[in-house]
Amino acid sequence: MGSGKITLFSTVVAAVCIIVYITAIVFGAVQITISINDRRQLSEWEFNNLADLAASAAFLGFMSEDYELAMKDAVADSQTILGLILSGSNGQFAIERRQGSIINWIGDSPRFRKGFGMASDPYHRIININGQRNGSIQAQYSVIDYDALQRTLKTSLTFILGALALAIFALITEIALKNRSRYYEEISLQKPYKSAPAPAPVPPATPVRDVQEVVVTRMPEPPVYTPPPVYTPPVYEAPVYEAPVFEAPVYEVPEPPAFEPFAEPVTEAVNMENEIENDQLASMLLNSYSSGQDLVLISIENRGGEILHTNETVYRELVEEAPELFSGEEIVSEKNEDSLTLIIPNISIENGIIKTEELLRRVEVRNSPDTKLYAGLSSRSGRLVEAGRLLFESRSALEKAAADPDTQVIGFKSDPEKYKEFITGL
Fold this sequence. Notes:
Layout (H helix, E strand, L loop, with lengths): L2 H54 L8 H13 L3 E8 L2 E6 L6 E4 L2 E4 L10 E4 L9 E6 L4 H44 L77 H5 L6 H14 L3 E8 L9 H14 L6 E4 L4 E6 L3 H17 L7 E7 L7 H17 L5 E4 L3 H9 L2
Parallel strand pairs: 10-11
Antiparallel strand pairs: 1-2, 1-6, 3-4, 5-6, 7-9, 7-10, 8-9
Helix pairs in contact: 1-3, 6-7
């Protein structure tokens, strides 16, 4: 093989090695970038789930032992969250995946540490916690998936080692070919042997003379060099990276505890199950549990000269006036034989009493003097109660309002702290 062919072979091998090196570097950089982006999306999704859980689990008691245990389990089940800081009007507390690894305490205030692989801007979100002011949650997360990083580095190193092996083989082959060319050049420069001239032909008439035998010695032909087979490097196919598919965990809202009857008779509440579809009221109660909002139930009766089921004008005016007073809320109304029931979400019982008094006043002014409306109110007030209990409380408040000469509207207001103590003791 000539020197020109050797140079061409070396150039091709060098070009191939450079392409493999660049491919390995680009492949590693792209895979690491994709992994970091996937990690950020996963961490944002997990943080939103933790924030929703922190708000919905507040009925266990903010910063209580059960509440802290629930949040620790959620952090342990996540893949990217390293630690949480929860704040409320009662103070702050922190949760770490591994104790002492991510949070520094400065007095009574926790702070996230900074380091390699951690996010420079931790997540922060304001949350609505019942009974707490300025509720918020912060989370520090990991931006590097070390398992994916290890796989990427192994793949890139395999490419680089393959190119290095090809370069070493090319170097050895080039040295062998140069030595072979030099060997043949030295043989070609040596002085060749000359053979003796052939004897002159003898005329047939002359007697035969003794002819000295001449032995011609020729240089043996050099052995034919058979080059070794050309090494063909193995072809490495880059593995196709498939981003993992994460299934969002399903958080089921716990069923409210079974209600144990109190000492009062509940026959009226049982008989009133037909006044409002219990499934509809139970559904709105469940929505208020999950969103942390209050819900008010209003029972209204006409105890004047004409009862409500014969006075369609009074009923219609009550239903038409309610949306104007309770603006922006989804009002559900249901009329029975002699009463009207309104379900109003996202409103406190104090505000409900004020607006109900105004509602009754407006309707009474536009009707006959015999019209006399009374109303009883009940609210969830942070409790896990059943539909029948709310109906019983609102009807009891209605009866007290009808018997009280000084007022037409009475609200049943519970004590959330005593109720939590009652539920905890069950």
